[in-house]
Amino acid sequence: MEEMDMELVEQLVSENARFRMLFEEHQLLERELNEFERKKFLSPEEEFERKKIQKIKLAGKDEMRRILRDRNSQPVQHA
Hints:
Blueprint: H1 6-15, H2 17-38, H3 44-73
């Protein structure tokens, strides 16, 4: 999420339940991937799981980007 506007991300985390769930899942999956990276060797099962986690994480990141893009394309509403 480093290249995304963190201020907008924080706002969406507090306002959008779907975005918050995706963001939290993204962080969890990142921690799981870090655990695999600490190992010197992965079994075939671990390698399969690592790749599965990477795909899930990427899909979630793509959805978060869509939400951000949609949010950025909405006209600003004044009170």
